[in-house]
Amino acid sequence: MAKHLSSEKQAALNHFERWLKAYQKSSLLILSIGLLSFLGILFTLTGTLGFSGLSLVIVREIADLLLHTSLPEMAAKALGIATAMAFAAGFATLGIFASKGKEWCYYLGLGLYLADFLLLFLGRYAFSWSVLEVEFWIQFAIHLVFALAFGLVGFYLFKAKKAMKVYNETK
Q1: Is the separation of the CB atoms in 54 and 145 below 8 Å?
Q2: How many CB atoms lie within 10 A of CB 162?
Q3: Are 33 and 92 within 8 A, CB to CB?
Q4: Which of 45, 104, 154, 160 has minimal CB crowding within 10 Å?
């Protein structure tokens, strides 16, 4: 026989479910990081100007290194696209599993993204006048928006955990 919940317990459960759904939906933002990075590298390597700022810094740096090796240009571009695809698949996987409730995927995605954000300052722009380039500011703005989005996802996760605690403590 189904046990009826008290009104306080039901309210706590409803509160938890609302925050959990918000976390699950917003954690899919992690997936879009990889997609944007892939599109940014694809546009850059095919000669479309102005889109390299969409990509993750690490992906762009790897693609740039590949283009400056002794590899034929087509092979270097293919490896750059393959690298972007690997990172896109990695972030997509993290986003999907985070939306299914795997907290470690959220934290790993956050850590990797913040490391990439840090690389923006330690990479080619470190201690140079290159920070005046538009590409830097595009990457900075995109990284900042996604860092804030990660913060929002973390807020939803925190509220869901807090609501579950209230639910468990309610009689």
Answers
A1: no
A2: 13
A3: no
A4: 104
Q: Which of 32-41, 59-68, 124-133 has the lowest mean pLDDT?
A: 124-133
Within the chain, strands assigned E span: none
Cα 17 → chain centroid: 24
pLDDT at 45: 73
Widest CA span in the chain: 73
**What value, to the nearest 5°, has the Cα angle with vertex 116 and ends 110 and 117?**
85
